[in-house]
Write a structure and sequence with these properties.
single chain, alpha/beta, eight-stranded mixed beta sheet, seven-stranded mixed beta sheet, elongated, NADP_transhyd_a_C, transmembrane, NADP_transhyd_a, NADP, cell membrane
Amino acid sequence: MLIGSPRERLEGEARVAMTPDSATQLQKLGYQCAIETGAGKLAGFSDDAFRAAGVTVVDSAETLFASADVIAKVRPPESSEMARLSSGKTLISFFYPAQNKDLLDRAKSTGANVIAMDMVPRISRAQKMDALSSMANIAGYRALIEAGNNFGRFFTGQVTAAGKIPPAKVLVIGAGVAGLAAVGTSVSLGAITYAFDVRPEVAEQIESMGAEFVFLDFEEQQQDGAATGGYAAPSSPEFRAAQLKKFREIAADIDIVITTALIPGRDAPKLWLADMVATMKPGSVVVDLAAERGGNCDLTVPDQKIISDNGVTVIGYTDFPSRMAAQSSTLYSTNIRHMITDLTPNKDGVIVHNMEDDVIRGATIALKGEITYPPPPPKIQAIAAQKPKEKPKELTPEEKKAAEAAGFRSATRNQVGLLIIGGLLMLLIGAFAPPVFMGHFIVFALACFVGFQVIWGVSHSLHTPLMAITNAISGIIIIGAVLQITAGGWLVTALAAISVAIAAINIVGGFMVTRRMLNMFQKS
C-alpha cells in the first residue's frame, strides 16, 4: 500500500505529516511513500531529502490522492480534499469530529476510513500516538518564548551596577501538557513561576519543577479525568467563583499569564476576565493557548495580538506548533508512524482495522461508510481511581491498655518458649557430647554473641549500612586468619592466607565504591 502526504492548504500552516526519517520507518513496515512537492519546504525538509529517503515526490495533490491508499495530513481535510477520498482509502489527520459534524457526514458519504489523531485515547499504551500532547508540549514552550518576545524585560532577576532588576512573575493556568511545558520553560528562564489547576493532586508535580502551586480554599472534589478519557472536566459554578476570586487577588502582581484551559468539544472557559487584565501592570503579557476555541481571556482575538487600554499585550495566536514547524513535524510524523505501526500488525504494508483495539477504536471516527464517533469509553481508565482507604478505628483507653497487655503476654510467651527450647538443647548436647566439644562449643557461642554485637555496632556514616556490615565481617575474618597463619600445618596456613587476601579485597573494594559514591555529591 502507498502512504501519501499532501501539502497543507491552510494559510500559514507550515507542518507536514511525513518527514524523511518517518518515511524510512514506514518503508520498513512494507509501505511505499509519496509526498506532494513542496509539502515539507516550510518545515525545512526539501524534496531532495525525501527522494534520498526513497519517497516518491508527486507534482500535485490530485495525483497524490488518486494513487495513495493512506492519506496522512496535519489539519482537518478541506472540502476539495474530502471530494478526492473514496471507498477503501484511509485518512489519518486531526479532524475534531465534535466541532465538524458536516465534515464527518461527508466522510461517511465517501466510504473512506477516517482516523482522527485528536481522538487517540489518553491511556498509557497510546502515549506514543498522542499527537495532541506532542503539539501541546510545543505550544506551551513557544507560548513562553512569545511572551518573552513581547514582555520587554528580563525573566530572571539581576543585580547590576545600574541597579537591581526584579524577576518576572509568571502564572500558568492549567497544568496539562502545555501548562507543564510552559512551567518548565519559565522556571528554566529564572522567572518566579506560579501554576494553577483544578486538580489539587498535581501540586506536588508543579512544586517539584520549581514553581509554586496556587491553592484554592474550596472543599469540593474535582473530577480527575478518569471518566473523560484523561481530559479536563467542567467545574461547578461554585468552584469557578472561587477560582475567579483567587485570580483577581493575584492579577495585579503577575507580569505574564499563560492560559491553557480547554475541554474537547466545548468552548474555552473564560478564566482571565477583562477586569483582571485592567489590574495588570502596563507591559504585562497574556498568552491564550485556547484562542482557537474562543480563548480563556475576555480580550483574546483569535490569530491576533492586541494591546489593551492599560498597555497589556494579549496574544491569541492559534498556530504555536506551526511556528516551530521542524520540531512539530518531527513529533507529529512520529505519532503518525506509531499509529500506522499498530494498524499493521503483520508488518506487510497492509492496513488491518482491529476495532477490538482500544486505541484504534477510539481514534476511528468513520469506517466503511459508517460513522463510528463517538467511541465507547476505553476499557482501561486514563487515570486509575484510587481505592478509598479505611480509616483506622480509634481505640478507647481501655482497648489500648488491653491491646498492650495482649502484646506483652505474646512477646513474653515467645521469649520464654525460646529459652526453654534452647536450654533443653544445651542439656541434650551436654549429656551426650564429649567435654572437649563442649569447651569449643561454649567458645563458639560466645564468639557469635560478641561478633554480632561488634558487627551491628559499626557506624555507617561513610558507608551504606550493608557495606559497613560486610567490612566489619571481613575485618573479623582477617583477625581470625592472622591468628591461624602461625598455627602450624601448611593447609591451615594456606587457607588463612587466602582468607586474608579475599577479605582485604572486599574491604578495599568497599572503600573504593564509597569514595565514588561520595564524589557523586561533590561539585567539580
